[in-house]
Amino acid sequence: MKTAITSFLLLMNVMVSFAQKDSLELGNRYADDQIYVAVSYAQFYDQPTVISKSNFSYGLSVGFIKDIILNKQGNISIAAGVGYGFDFFNHKLKIQKINNEIVFSQDNTISSNLFKSHNLEFPLEFRWRTSTANKYSFWRIYGGVKFAYNLSNKFQFDDDTQTTFKYSNISNYNNLQYGLTLSAGYDEFNINIYYGLTPIFNNSVINGEVINTKILKFGLIFYIL
């Protein structure tokens, strides 16, 4: 994981070196190259019927995104980027390794049940904004898709005797996930939504029911010059 994070930081440094500033003038056009930071409230959705709603959970993302202008005015573009994401879930699905196999169950006796993941993120966006080459505060609507490659995942719970069980990088975890994204707002402050389309687990069942748990996040995203 240290090697992956080091590679990510080096890639970020190279990409940022090509971005001189937000709204870089290109004749009559400009590129809206930016560093972004997102803070989100997170929930699992499409949960198994025996599992209740997750408790307070959150996600953090930071990265760099490169703008590619599509029209002369410069207010329509596509963008591609790379970033790092961290997710923390306080959830109700018990995950345990028994005889070297991952077993999913529901257990009301556990006092703490946490899931943490570190991911490389690759956002792709179609962008519309009210900006010009000389106007740095503007309305924007950015929609697209985000791919996430998992670097590490850890599941941890405490049973009724306060014994802690930890399982890292479980084989059932779906390491490549993607979902739809939407950002809209004015200037640096924008609402941000991520709607996961892929289940976080592969080939997993609970009480005979296939686990299709996915991730939903909504919060704020900040675009920094």
Description:
It is a single chain. Helix content is 7%, strand content 60%. With 225 residues, the protein is mostly beta strands. The protein has a single domain (2-224), classed as Beta Barrel (Lipocalin), CATH 2.40.128. The longest helix has 16 residues, at 2-17. Mean pLDDT is 84; it is low at 11-28. Residues 1-19 form the signal peptide. Residues 18-202 form the Outer membrane protein beta-barrel domain. Keywords: Signal. This is Outer membrane protein beta-barrel domain-containing protein.
Helix and strand layout, with pairings?
Layout: H1 2-17, E1 24-26, E2 29-31, E3 34-45, E4 58-69, E5 76-90, E6 93-98, E7 101-106, E8 112-129, E9 139-158, E10 164-168, E11 176-186, E12 189-196, E13 205-206, E14 209-210, E15 214-224
Antiparallel strand pairs: 1-2, 3-4, 3-15, 4-5, 5-8, 6-7, 8-9, 9-10, 9-11, 11-12, 12-15, 13-14
